[in-house]
């Protein structure tokens, strides 16, 4: 009987923590896309350069498509499956910012994700993430 109570408690507590992690990942992914949208960088896909606004629109559509099919749960999966290469041609995406070199978008987004995770949480983010071990980024 004691084991049943322990198993049920773990199951209930574990399921209560899962939505916070999903929310955290969604916010991280949104923050990554927002970082590109706010930048003055250009985004190259399939040989054509686009401004940051058109790039973020494209990435949001790809992210939405992946989410509907439960194919992306984390920011790392978003980078790998949506923000790194064309799903049509397989060619890697690139990012070019003023005064900087052209880099593969996977590297640019991974760097942005590291910056997000390393930044000190604001009071609002700390409050929102108090029930989760994963930081919330808005």
How would you characterize this protein structure?
- With 138 residues, the chain is of the alpha+beta class.
- 59% of the residues lie in helices and 10% in strands.
- The chain is built from five helices and four strands.
- The protein has helices spanning 2-38, 52-68, 75-81, 105-118, 123-128; strands spanning 42-45, 48-51, 94-96, 102-104.
- A four-stranded antiparallel β-sheet has the order 2-1-3-4.
- β1 and β2 form a beta hairpin.
- α1 packs antiparallel against α2 (52-68) and α1 packs across α4.
- The N and C termini lie far apart (43 Å).
- The relative contact order is 0.16.
Number of E strands: 4
The whole-number mean of residue pLDDT values reads 81
Distance between the termini: 43 Å
Helical stretch tally: 5
Overall helicity: 55-70%
Described by strand count, sense and barrel closure, the largest sheet is: 4 strands, antiparallel
How much strand? 5-15%
Tell me the strand order in the biggest sheet.
2-1-3-4
Order of helices and strands: HEEHHEEHH
Low-confidence stretches: 3-20, 126-138
Radius of gyration: 18 Å
The 3D shape can be described as globular
Structural class: alpha+beta
Outline the fold blueprint.
Layout: H1 2-38, E1 42-45, E2 48-51, H2 52-68, H3 75-81, E3 94-96, E4 102-104, H4 105-118, H5 123-128
Antiparallel strand pairs: 1-2, 1-3, 3-4
């Amino acid at each position: 009987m004691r084991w049943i109570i322990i198993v049920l408690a773990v199951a209930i507590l574990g399921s209560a923590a899962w939505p916070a992690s999903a929310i955290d990942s969604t916010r991280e992914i949104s923050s990554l896309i927002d970082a590109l949208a706010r930048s003055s960088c250009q985004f190259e896909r399939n040989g054509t350069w686009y401004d940051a606004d058109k790039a973020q629109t494209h990435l949001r559509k790809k992210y939405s498509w992946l989410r509907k099919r439960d194919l992306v749960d984390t920011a790392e999966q978003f980078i790998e499956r949506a923000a790194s290469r064309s799903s049509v041609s397989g060619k890697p995406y690139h990012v070019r910012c003023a005064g900087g070199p052209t880099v593969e978008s996977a590297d640019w987004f991974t760097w942005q994700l590291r910056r997000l995770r390393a930044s000190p949480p604001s009071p609002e983010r700390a409050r929102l993430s108090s029930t989760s071990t994963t930081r919330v980024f808005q």
